Amino acid sequence: MLDDIQAAIPLGFLLSFMIGPVFFVLLETGAVRGFRAAVIFDLGVILADILFLTVAYFSSFQLLENLSNEPGLYVFGGVILLVYGITTYFKTEIKKDKPALRTKKNDYLSLFVKGFLLNFINIGVLVFWLGIIIVVGPSLNNDPNRIIVFFAAMLGAYLTTDIFKILLAKQLKRKLTYKRISRIKKGLGIILIICGLVLITKGFLPKDQFNIEKGIEKIEEIRD
């Protein structure tokens, strides 16, 4: 269980730096409205992620069950991540227009709803979660409890990273130039492309030729 949490934390950190409308609105809210308002907004975003995760899990449940018997289905998840990564890498247009957050200072419910809706209307988020579930599901033996722990830890790391972003909102806003944002997007795109290619490769290779656990055992045998 601890290994699952440790594996989830880097993904949560990566998710927090996916450049999009939510990223900029979160920084804007933190810089203008303060820490508490930004956290409330972020909780709305995370609620949308949880909803997408639930939909992605149940829509891919049968696929996950078949992955152990039909490794070729890994290609499906790999293609999803590959396309998402290519889109992220080559999509150079960065919209800095932020939806107006004209609410009263203490209208936290409105901020929560805005965070939820801003994330919910982005169908790419659902595609992203579907790809991640297909990648990590088999490695967690498709165990619902392990999957829940993994994604809870991932979202926890995401929220923790966002809290640090909120605390540094004013400094980040000044340092995030167009060129730096483009580099971050391209870096994230490359990571997703590599993950997609690895998954596609795993789908075409025989099951016992791409077994990480067996590879680790062989390395330990050589050391001994």
UniProtKB/TrEMBL annotation:
Topological category with respect to the lipid bilayer: Multi-pass membrane protein
Domain of life: Bacteria
UniProtKB keywords: Cell membrane, Membrane, Transmembrane, Transmembrane helix
Keyword Cell membrane applies: yes
UniProt KW Transmembrane keyword: yes
Main location: membrane
Transmembrane portions of the chain: 6-27, 39-59, 71-90, 111-135, 147-168, 188-205
Pfam family, one: LysE
Subcellular location: Cell membrane
Protein name: LysE family transporter
